[in-house]
Amino acid sequence: MQRKAIVIGATGLVGQHLVKQLSELYDTLIVIARRPPRYINTSMRFYQVNDFDNLAEIFSSVGVDKKTDAFSCLGTTKKQAGSSEAFRKIDHDYNVNFAKLCQDKGVENFFLLSSMNADIHSRFLYNRVKAETEQSILALNFTQTVIFRPSLLLGKHKGRPLESMGQKAFKLISPLVSESMPLHPISAKRVASAMAMSAHDIYERSKYRSEPRINTTRIIENKQMLSMTRVKQ
Predict the structure, then answer these.
(1) CB within 8 Å of 108: residues ≥ 6 apart
(2) What is the pTM of this model?
(3) Mean pLDDT of 86-93
(4) DSSP string, 178-223
(5) 3-state class of 119 per DSSP?
């Protein structure tokens, strides 16, 4: 069976690692982004979109179908977006619209990058919007919905000074901090590995399933991602 995957958020901290790993698992990798990802190979089909409000136009020609797994690493911050409204549009509206377009094409498996602190009742906008996005996508009822909630992401964050400061502080104390701690930071590469591994596990298990598939939701927390990817990166 020819396997396909589609990704948005492919140029972000996690996304750039994810496309490289997915290209080794899938026969065709569809990437929709404003600019080409750093890693490109022959299995990749890149579709440039200048405005995600026009995503439906791109979908008319990308060849997404039931055999396609969908991944979203799309996200930003209020500072980068410029306002609360713009932040919510990117983190919630664009992600949910992408998920709906995938569902219309028959996609069964959806993998979403979220955040450890996603909480619908949080006083912080970032955490509330992450939770709203999770809920909206869960309501679409994909056959398999897998949500990843990492802690502080280790890597180069453009335009995120607080996270950069947090990384510097963590490097000083990291020898004393066990990975078993829920708030332990995690590298973007390891999050991408957890996403790719989860998708591959679903694929492998589907080969031996004779009964009809039931709709399943999995939330993979930071501690589990650290455990899944404990091999040195």
Answers:
(1) 66, 142, 143, 144, 213
(2) 0.89
(3) 97
(4) -TTSTT--EEHHHHHHHHHHHHHHHHHHHTT--SPP--EEEEEEHH
(5) coil
